[in-house]
Design goal:
Layout: E1 3-11, E2 31-34, E3 37-40, E4 61-69, H1 73-82, E5 104-109, E6 112-117, H2 121-126
Antiparallel strand pairs: 1-4, 2-3, 5-6
The structure holds iron/sulfur cluster and zinc ion.
Iron/sulfur cluster (SF4) binds at residues 11, 16-22, 38, 55-56, 58, 60-61.
Length: 127
């Protein structure tokens, strides 16, 4: 697999407590907890989009630009299809519908990382 300089998630081991909150928000299933720390298990699974960053209560996640294996949609497809544990649809915190039913987006509220669906978002905005 070819390498290229590109954005990829960096996990600060000193800060990571291994809580696992960043694992299921990664749609690519790129993060696992191994030996008590979060790890990007394969570079080709991480697209560097950084959706995981806001989920970490410790500030252990950042996106860095470095030489890494290129992101592969094909590898992600194989990985997420190979084990249901690698793709966990996220649910809207208000109505409970999941991302396979409606688009959902990340939001933060009072220190919590949450997901909200497009139906519930207007109610959050307008009260
Ligand atoms: S959310 Fe942060 S502290 Fe928790 S496992 Fe992921 S990187 Fe580690
Ligand atoms: Zn909803």
């Amino acid at each position: 697999m070819a390498k290229a300089k590109r954005p990829i998630v960096r996990i600060d081991e000193e800060k990571c407590t291994g809580c696992g909150l960043c694992v299921s928000p990664c749609a690519e299933g790129a993060i696992e907890i191994r030996d008590g720390k979060a790890r990007v298990i394969k570079e080709e699974l991480c697209d560097g989009a950084g959706f995981c960053i806001g989920t970490c209560p410790e500030g252990a996640l950042t996106v860095e630009e470095r030489e890494a294996e290129e992101f592969s949609e094909e590898a992600v497809h194989k990985h997420t299809q190979s084990n249901p544990r690698n793709y966990i649809p996220q649910k809207c915190f208000r109505c409970g519908r999941n991302e396979d039913e409606l688009p959902i987006m990340p939001c933060r509220s009072a220190g919590e990382s949450l997901w909200v669906c497009t139906r519930c978002l207007p109610a959050l905005i307008h009260g």
